[in-house]
Specification:
heterodimer; A: mainly alpha; two-stranded antiparallel sheet; globular; B: alpha+beta; Alpha-Beta Plaits; three-stranded antiparallel beta sheet; two-stranded antiparallel ribbon; binds iron/sulfur cluster
Amino acid sequence: MNIYLLAIDWWFIIEKLVLIALIVTLCLIIAMYETYGERKVAAFIQDRIGPNRAGPFGILQPLADGGKLFFKEEIIPLTSSKYLFVLGPTLAMITALLTSAVIPWGTSLEIGGRNVALQVADINIGVLYIFAVVSIGVYGIMIGAWSSNNKFSLLSGLRAASQMISYELAMGLALIAILMMSGSLQMSVIVNKQMSGALGGFGGWNIWYQPLGFLVFFTCALAECNRTPFDLPEAESELNFGYHQEYSSMKLGFYLFAEYINMFMSCILMATLFLGGYDIPFVNETTLAAHIGQNWVALLSFLSLLAKAFFLVFVFMWIRWTVPRFRFDQLMHLGWKKLIPLALANMVITAALILWMNS
Amino acid sequence: MNQIQYTNRAKAVDRRPLNFIERLYLWNIFIGMFITIKHFFKKKPTVQYPEQVREVGTAYRGLHILNRDEEGRERCTACGLCAVACPAEAISMEAAERLDDEEHLYREEKYAAKYEINMLRCIFCGLCEDACPKDAIYLSHTFTPTNYHRKGLIYKKEDMLIPNPKTQPEEYAKAKGLIDDKKKK
Ligand code: SF4
Ligand code: SF4
């Protein structure tokens, strides 16, 4: 028994636990500041200034908002189904955070002679895993909407479910083209493949080879995150508030948080799949590592991934404050009759090209 | 169909069917995003209110001020013309007779012992100012009265009286400046 215990690589477990803790904290903090960013972007686009009273430039605003949510009264409607009512936001939050497990956050660190990968789990079905988790995410919304026993919430749950299912299809199809190019479902392989491209990796980014795929994927990501112009599940003007109408206090906070984490995660995912992941453009990482050390490169690559993701988050917000909401039939029309054929065509063309190049 | 033209500003609505580019929707979204990003970098017109106050015009009608004459005596004689003129019926007053030893306090033989304006009713039309034969009431440039109680927004005479030029010359000059502003226009 003792021998068996010793055989476990304790450092490995500690390293992963620390990494998980760091990533979860990072996600939460970023989600917090995304709310701030959203308000600022909205304000600037509308020629306003936005929150600027709490702390310098209002940077303490998310704390004030969070504190407010914490101290609100917790209400569980009498006619709701209690367990499911609590399960809804929990599920939404958990699935939102689960996606972060397979993302490669940067090149590996070197601590005390050990090579520490900045990735919680480098499983060989990474992309599949993300899709699985994201599809569970819809349960959080559906269960919450259904259990609140409110007509508007139920409607919004229906909308969310059908919207997510329709857009996941096109998203998956757009992705297949990428997978055909990299030949693997493993996230680290996809990133490494892009990093080996021309111009220090910049020329290898998948977006240059798959512009149409990126467009389809981006549109679907907007829909998956329930962002405008596809925010039908929470269309205020039609459904009051949508699936979180009956929620209050931190349960509502969880839903809102989960949404922002989802947004960050899908931007990270898009950066990983299409924008070269943690690749620093125009720089060859291995030669740089020889100059300034591997740990610094790890940090820089991590920052580069964050920068790409933040840019995408900004575009998400930019779109939100530009494009009005779709009608539901328009949404379905776009999903089934436009995006899926487009993604299919993209897939077939990619396949044909790959075959042609290889022969 | 020939419609009557009242102005030359009417614009015909373009009802042509969308062409291919427009039906793609994407291009138009890019145009829209270009417009919003232009606004993103524009200078913001926001006035940071409590710290910065926007300049108001000389004719601005704010809170009332009850005037005194050069010797610091209250000008109001409680004639009630302002109350009659007031469309919102915001003014109420009680008159009293000036005693012999009060000549330094009140200009006329009759004065307002109580003079109240309900700022919640007042619509700041300035008709009281027009009605007054004694130059006793003016609307100043001060605005946004706040209070925790409705009662606190019924302003008493003490809340509105201009500072005494004899005892508080500086404050008087400051308040007077606003009145003079209004007279100039
Ligand atoms: S400003 Fe108009 S409404 Fe206000 S007290 Fe004077 S007359 Fe009445
Ligand atoms: S303020 Fe003028 S109009 Fe009103 S009661 Fe006094 S003297 Fe008369």
